[in-house]
Amino acid sequence: MNRRVLRPFFCLAGLILIVGLACATSAAQPTSTSVPTVPPPPTNTLEPTLTSTPAATPTPQGPPKFFTEDFNQVFSGDPPYWSHFLTSGSESKLEMKSDGKSFIVTMNEKQTYLYMIYNPTTYQNVSLDIKFDNRGRNTNNISLICDYSDDKGWYEFNLGSGGVWNILFFDQVTKYYQFLANGGSVNIHAGQVSNEYKATCQGNDLTLYINGVKTYNITDSTYALQEGKVGFSISSFDVLPIIVAVDSIQVSEP
Questions:
Q1: pTM
Q2: Which of 17, 50, 144, 222 is the most buried (most CB within 10 A)?
Q3: What residue ranges do the domains of the chain occupy?
């Protein structure tokens, strides 16, 4: 074969081969694609829904109905939940405070009658127990009160430091005391000593205890209040000063 004839053929074949390789190489290159734009998160997205039930808020507890108050906080004036009034005497001559151990009442005026009332609740059947020290002169009265009402009156168990006691009804309408029973007891400790008095009001039955001894019981059908607040009273007479430290008050079911 004539070499002059083959050379153009090889040149043409080589050209075809180069073009084919170029096309193949071009086909093998990855095609560039545009990256999709991610939209920004919405600004008003909803909060996720809670699947668990939140804990219930506990209901606040009110003051107790039955309790023992031992005055272990320091304060001046009325104990918490209690209020006072005077039926005789002046506020300026009266001092009330707690030293963290006792509720101390000091009277510097004769014929001062102080009443302390527990306000949160009323009672149909109740026992009231008071423990106290006499730190002043031995001429005072300590009283326990049940079935107290502002418009009708109250029952009062009245004990003198000299050894006498009586059970009374105070009539709020007439403003007079009505005597239901009275007597004397050797169980009342005289002088600067401790005493414990207890009164039980159950229906129409009224019972007095002096230093753990059952002293008297009476059934009253005249007034028959049967429900009211409880409290206690401290009184001075003609010798001063009167200083009484109440160590505890217990209000309980009879």
A1: 0.76
A2: 144
A3: 67-252
> What pLDDT, in 10s, does the model give residues 149-178?
999 999 999 999 999 999 999 999 999 999
Beta bridge pairs of residue 242: 107
**pLDDT tens digit string along 47-94?**
444 445 555 555 557 788 999 999 999 999 999 999 999 999 999 999
CA–CA dist 117, 124 (Å, integer) = 16
Q: Three-state SS for 190?
A: coil
Superfamily of domain covering 67-252:
Exo-inulinase; domain 1 (2.60.120.560)
What residues does 134 pair with on adjacent strands?
Answer: 244
Could you tell me if 214 and 91 are in contact, meaning their C-beta atoms sit under 8 angstroms apart? no
Residue from 161, 97, 107 nearest 134 by CA: 161
Neighbours of 96 (CB within 10 A): 20
DSSP letters spanning 125-155: EEEEEEEEEE-S-S-EEEEEEEEEETTTEEE
DSSP 3-state of 23: helix
Q: How far apart are CA 138 and CA 236, in angstroms?
A: 10
Number of H helices, E strands in the chain: 1, 16
